[in-house]
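Thread title: Can someone regenerate the structure for this chain?

I was given the following input by a collaborator and told the matching structure tokens would be attached. They weren't. Posting the sequence so someone can regenerate them.
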Amino acid sequence: MLWVSPSHQRQGVGNALINQVENVLKNKHARLLIVETSSLHDFSAARDFYSKQGFIKEARIRHYYGIDEDKIIFTKNMKK
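Best answer:
Regenerated them for you:
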């Protein structure tokens, strides 16, 4: 789970965390990174963040977390 305290958001912390994860995975020759988040409005910043990090919106599983709360799945090709 990746979560950055609101007082530390927009300071590059999330970017640094994702970069660290990607570096570890690349060293292990991983080919795909998968992340998930909620479809709720409160998670719109997370969805925007993943898109800006080069993740592609891959899938939506409707009502996964609850009624009218979908799971949004993003992927990133690690071989680029």
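The helical segments are 13-27, 44-52.
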